[in-house]
Design brief:
By secondary structure, the chain is mainly α. It has one helix and no strands. The protein is rod-shaped, with a radius of gyration of 17 Å.
Length: about 40
């Protein structure tokens, strides 16, 4: 049972890490777009 709980915890941790990476990419893209608009 402990192995199953550990695997489940790792699975969800990976999901949250992926979600955070995607959010960071969106923020980065939005920031880059905002900066390029102000320069033109």
């Amino acid at each position: 049972m402990l192995l199953g709980r550990t695997a489940n915890g790792l699975y969800w941790m990976n999901r949250y890490i992926e979600r955070a990476e995607n959010m960071a990419r969106l923020v980065d893209a939005g920031l880059r777009m905002a900066l390029t608009r102000t320069q033109n």
